[in-house]
Structure formats: structure tokens, C-alpha cells
């Protein structure tokens, strides 16, 4: 038989020797190199994985911190802007109150002056009648006594022109003075009436009060967005009322818009009051007017609801002067 040669592959191992007492054999532990390599690879991969995840987490924390800083900065800017708007609103409110007070003072002055003029006119008429009665006695004509006031005045004018006597001349002078005074007072009276007529359109076109009675749930200015996402600038006053509450016009005007609005107002009515004033009534369940329709103050124009961008039944009420939002609180009275 042929001798078979057996070849053995030499295994590479790492041997650890543990020396015990001298009378005992040393202990040895052999670990193959591939096991050591595998362990080192696992350790390296684990370290790499931990490092990558730590970097990602650190990046996320940095981004969150940056976002928080930006949010705080935006909030501070919003608060500053809100404070500025409050200051401007307070100033406008003070100016409006002064103008309203001045207007009322003028109206009261005009009314008092009108009463005085009417009283003076009555006195002048009495004096003129007394003079005409004296003149009738001088003339002694029964027909003159029974004549109307206009006929007496015409007759007195003719008698004055004749200069019949010194007494007639005196009466003529008194009549002329009275007529001049009456003419002056009437001219002043007409001027006052013209001023009142000029101010009446501004008075009737200015919105006064609120369209419904109920608790105010939101004011004009910056507020927390009820749908989430930070703050928003609220352009009107929200008045919480049940669905179907009658909504009234706060001044006479013409319907500029009536129907569904795509910008979040829902069923919307816009009234044009003239002199730059417009009022908005939003989120209605029903609109009861049409474009071009004339309405008076306290006319019912809609029924309240929760249409559009709304979280519940209420009336969103806006006042705009020359397209600038005004606070309804400044027009409550």
C-alpha cells in the first residue's frame, strides 16, 4: 500500500498562558485570530454607529435650538408690533373722541343759536307789528287795519316814500332798521343751517355701536391663532352669539358685497357708508341683503353663524376708514 501523506493546515491562534503554582501545569487559552479580528470589527462598527447617531442627534438639537431662537425672536417682534399698534390705537381713539366732542359742541352751539334766532325773529315780528299798528292809527284807514301783513308792509312802504310828515319819516327809519336786522339774522340762520347740513352726512355715515349684543371673545390686534401655528393679526372684533341671531347695520349705507367669501370670512356682508367708512359682518349663516341695496341703521342684514374660518358661532365685526382697520371700541357710543 502506498503511504498516504496527510497535510494539516496550521491554524493561527493567540495563546494566553496562566501560570499557577509550581507544582501544577500552566493553563493556556487559545483564541483564533479571526475571532479577534471579528471582535475588533464589531467594536469599530459599534463605535462608528454610536458616533454617527450622536452627530445626527447633535445636529437635530442644534436645529431645534435655532428654531426656538427664531420663534422667540418672532414672538418679541410680534409683541413690539402689538405694543405699537396699541399705542397708535389709543392715539386714534383719543383723536376720535376729541373730534366727536368738538362735533357735538358745534351741534349744540348751532341748536342754541337757532333757538336764539327764532326768539329774536319772534321779537322782531312783534316790534314790526306794533309799528304797523301805530302806522295804521296815523293813517286812520279802516281798510288798512283789516289788511294782511303783506298788504300792510306794502302800504307802509308807499307811505314812507311819500314822506307825508316827520312822524312818518321816523316810522320809515324804524322799519328800515328792522328789515335790515331781519335780513342779517336770516342770513346768519341760513349759514348755520348750511353748516349743520354739511355735517349731517358725516354723522349718519359714522358706524355707532355693535351689530349684535353678546360677550366679546376676541379683540382687534395680534392674538394666538385659534387653528395653531403661532400668532396672527386679528382685524376685527368677535362677538359670541347663538347661530341665527339677527345682525344689524351700525349705520346707513349701501351693500357693497353680500355672499360667500373665499378668504375665510364665510358668508360676508360689506356695507359702504360713504366718507371712507366701510363695515364687515362675517361668518353668517344667512345673508339677507343684496349688492346695491340701501340700508338704514339697525336694519337686519344677516343671521349669525360659523361659516368660513371659524371655531364656533359668532359675528366677526370690522370697521375700516379709507381701508385702514379701526377698533370698534372707539365707535361704541
Features:
333 residues; alpha+beta; eight-stranded antiparallel beta sheet; three-stranded antiparallel beta sheet; 50% helix; 23% strand; disordered N terminus
Structure description:
This protein has 333 residues and is of the alpha+beta class. 50% of the residues lie in helices and 23% in strands. It has four helices and 15 strands. Strands 3, 6, 8, 9, 10, 12, 14 and 15 form an eight-stranded antiparallel sheet that branches. Strand 4 and strand 5 form a beta hairpin. Helix 1 packs antiparallel against helix 4 and helix 3 crosses helix 4. The longest helix is centred in the first third of the chain and has 107 residues. The termini are far apart.
Low-pLDDT runs of 5+ residues are: 1-8, 139-146, 159-166
Helix content: 40-55%
User: Would you report the number of β strands?
Assistant: 15
Specify Rg, calculated over alpha carbons.
48 Å
